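This part of the workshop introduces the protein records we will be handling. A record pairs a protein's sequence with a compact description of its fold. Backbone structure tokens are a discrete shorthand for how the chain folds in space. The question running through the whole workshop is how a given chain folds. The record below serves as our worked example for the rest of this section.
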Amino acid sequence: MGRFGSAAPRVETIVIGADHAGYHLKTFLKEELERLGYKVLDKGAFRFDEGDDYPDFIVPTVKEVLKNPLKTKAIIIGGSGQGEAMTANRFQGIRAVVFNGQYKPLDGRMVPHEIVISRQHNDANVLALGARFLSNEEAFHAVKLWLETPFSNDERHKRRLRKLENLTT
């Protein structure tokens, strides 16, 4: 078993964090994930405060993932998910991806859902969502699909992830 995904057991803990823009979606997702039997660790925001700052919630959220990366994933939520993902990706070992809705490739090809690719190819361990772009139902469907998709464990993907992991600034 390596550092990356598929040999790991089902996710044991989902850590969730959001700023004011993602507060209501976070509350909804937390309830739905608990209903499915997941253990959810909420790192805030714990109330709607338009003046809060996303790094204050994203940093403690991703630090929880790093404590037990094979059994923990995180969902981070903001207005667009972009700043949240940038914050998360500052931490070595975090592979955060943004999802703001399904798209159709310009060349018309049929491709797997990008949520699936983020897990199968990139072993993403943090999913950033944009609350201003997704309905509750769209977000829940994406989260569920993301959590249920394993890493492919293909050697080419493991090789690329090792290269990514070894990057330093």
